[in-house]
Design brief:
The chain is of the alpha/beta class. It has twelve helices and nine strands. It folds into two domains: 86 residues, no CATH class; 192 residues, no CATH class. The longest helix has 25 residues. It is globular and about 50 Å long.
Length: 294
């Protein structure tokens, strides 16, 4: 079994949930450090995937020692975020709302767009504790349809169940869930999905950090079809500040009349925003899949 499959398996996810619910933070973080050191020492395939992604973000000047240490930190931070997410399950709404700092201006913008009957399409990156950020947004009275990974396996079923605790509707991407998302956006609701999760099946590659990448173009299609307001948000962590969200938008879509050209142009514009978010804290980019074809 690949270590990627082991990490995302149902037993390991259940173990993580038990640790988060029943063990103190110092022990949960300590176990995350042990696991990250083990991965960095054994260097399985997932380690090299993370290193390859970081290599493209940091550029050719990054030496092996820097890449190795940053890759190790990615796995350590991932362990921290899972502990904190699992630990927060069951908290009252008031506590969840305060678990992640969300700019009031962004929340006001979301509500203003919805009050006008215009849907909100929230595009997120897999930065830091994006799961806890979702719980915090839901606790503030903003129910969301979350378009998640199609055909989830193993521990992803557990994660999706936990994500519904905040009132979100979790819908793996299917033709039916996409039609539901279109209806929701046209009706002035909120839909969220990841904008940096690689989609190798996509026929189009989008330039990302200087090279064609497997970024999804589906979000752009949704925005163009529905006229929704598009926002790009990322969760970050600061030792003093804790978890916080940065939001950019609304991002107006280019509409020239050339449908395919508009899709690619807008996908590139969104990729530039994603680059800015990832570049701030590449060691917090929880991306464990190859982004670039090579």
């Amino acid at each position: 079994m690949r270590i990627q499959d082991l990490i995302s398996s149902k037993p390991v996810t259940q173990l993580g949930l038990f640790i988060g619910q029943h063990m103190p933070r110092w022990l949960g973080y300590g176990l995350a450090r042990v696991a990250s050191n083990l991965i960095a020492r054994r260097q399985p395939g997932i380690y090299w995937t993370v290193r390859a992604n970081l290599r493209q973000v940091l550029g050719p000047d990054a030496d092996d020692a820097t890449l190795h240490e940053m890759a190790r930190h990615v796995f350590y931070h991932a362990g921290q975020t899972y502990y904190d997410f699992f630990h927060a399950i069951g908290w009252p709404a008031e506590a969840l709302a305060q678990a992640v700092h969300i700019p009031k201006e962004a929340l006001d913008q979301f509500r203003a767009e919805m009050a006008r009957g215009r849907g909100v399409l929230m595009l997120s990156t897999h930065m830091s504790n994006f799961d806890l950020a979702g719980l915090s947004i839901g606790a503030r009275g903003l129910p969301i349809q979350l378009l998640s990974l199609a055909d989830p396996e193993g521990g992803f079923h557990i994660l999706n169940y936990l994500r519904t605790k905040s009132g979100h509707e979790i819908t793996p991407i299917t033709p039916q869930s996409l039609r539901a998302a279109i209806r929701r956006l046209k009706g002035g609701g909120i839909v969220a999905t990841g904008a940096d999760r690689p989609i190798p099946q996509d026929r189009e590659l989008v330039e990302f950090f200087g090279r064609p990448a497997y970024l999804p173009v589906g979000p752009v299609r949704l925005a163009l079809m529905t006229g929704a307001s598009v926002f790009v948000g990322s969760c970050f962590h600061d030792p003093d500040r804790g978890y916080y969200i940065e939001v950019v938008g609304p991002v107006e879509m280019v509409r020239s009349g050339d449908r395919q050209g508009d899709i690619l142009a807008n996908a590139r514009r969104l990729a530039i925003l994603l680059e800015e978010h990832v570049r701030v804290h590449p060691e917090q980019w929880m991306m464990f899949h190859p982004i670039w074809p090579e």
